[in-house]
Amino acid sequence: MYKIDDILIRASGINFKHISELMKNGICFDSGTGRNFYSGYIDKILFDWDQYFEAIIQFYAGWDSTLIKNGILIFLDSENESGLITRSVPVLPPDDNEHCKPFLSQIVNLIRFVYKDENWLNEDVYQKLKKYIDFWLNDMDINKNGLCEWMSSVHTGMDNQHERAGYWNDRFCEGVDLNSYLYLELIAFSKIANYLGFVDDSQLYLEKALLIKNKIINEMWDESDGFFYDIDIRTNQMIKVKSISSFMPLWACIATKEQAKILIYEHLFNSKEFWAPYPISAYARSEKGYRTELIPSDIGCNWRANTWINTNYMIYNGLKFYGYNQLASLLAYKTYELVKKTGEYEYYNSENGEGVKQNPFWGWTLLAHFLPLEEKLDFNINLAIRGEYE
């Protein structure tokens, strides 16, 4: 397990006592498998991409990998014959046909590369991971063009971004975010395959990853707007909605250097778009659908505006990867100060900084407390997950 210098931890001013008290609320029990797991939610639900961020939090908090492994195994044990794993355990209707977001292999590699724990990884785990990835590639690419689609806006995790991803089972959106996640997931799975001796699989899935990367760069980038857009498979046209999801090629290191520069200077740090008073807004402020309050037709939480710490964290790392260190530090400072001042909420009003929904929230919002530490480290946990320190 990577050890972080105690001097750096103290210099970062992290209040571990406060964080630990919150995190105790996250220890849950799954009666179906008899395993404990971690959840940031008061209703004790295990969600797909939440688990990635919660795993990072557990590492920084000094916890061992037990609950992270258990979360992976709970998801894999729920896999059906076709390879479908629902995006939550227990299943929240009508999510029973919405496939688990592609983060599981990346979490496995967090355990491998960060915790240095590989003994639990066996062929049974591997075959289940392969089946779930193949479900994405074979069953969630309806037009067989190499880009996968979301079932709905709820499936994206950005619950009410209906303008870009529709309602239940609309299934028309080839998501920039989804395919960015999938690119990294395939690379992660390729490394797992190689470690377990499945060399041919390793090469095959790496090639599939590179094909997705090229499609995102060449087919989802709008040259005139200087922006990545989702694609509507019904019309084969770009869905011209400016969402925070379109910055995921930064986090995944997919964007070219020129694309990254345009995204960052023309859109991300543009106060008329994503750089709201309390950044980063989940929709551009220029969007017709931008609003900080839910309306009756909305489902779930509000991603039509508002600030979410998990996406701030992803974009912070994207800025670092592309060498925009000063801008990354500015985002880290604003994110940290927002949570420190307001408290740990599920998300925040991007216009006035007020906290929204669950409080205290012991899920991905806790990442904000570790940003001052990440600023001082020469080790990046997201790159470690990708095997950069092998």
Distance between the termini: 13 Å
- Note poorly predicted spans: none
| Number of DSSP strand runs | 12
Evaluate the radius of gyration: 19 Å
- Discrete helix count: 16
Under CATH, the topology is which? Answer: Glycosyltransferase
CATH architecture: Alpha/alpha barrel
Q: Average pLDDT across residues? A: 95
Strand order of the largest sheet: 5-6-9-10
Largest sheet: 4 strands, antiparallel
Assign an overall shape. globular
- CATH domain class name: Mainly Alpha
Helix content: 40-55%
- Beta-strand percentage range: 5-15%
Describe the structure.
With 390 residues, the chain is of the alpha+beta class. The protein has one domain (6-385): Glycosyltransferase (Alpha/alpha barrel), CATH 1.50.10. Helix content is 45%, strand content 8%. The chain has helices spanning 6-11, 16-23, 48-60, 66-77, 104-113, 123-139, 153-156, 162-165, 176-195, 199-219, 248-251, 257-268, 309-321, 325-342, 367-376, 381-385; strands spanning 27-30, 35-38, 46-47, 88-89, 149-150, 173-174, 221-222, 227-228, 230-232, 237-239, 347-348, 355-356. The chain has a four-stranded antiparallel sheet. A hairpin with a 6-residue loop joins β11 (347-348) and β12. α6 packs antiparallel against α9 (176-195), α13 runs antiparallel to α14 and α14 runs antiparallel to α15 (367-376). The longest helix is centred in the middle third of the chain and has 21 residues, at 199-219. 50% of the residues are buried.
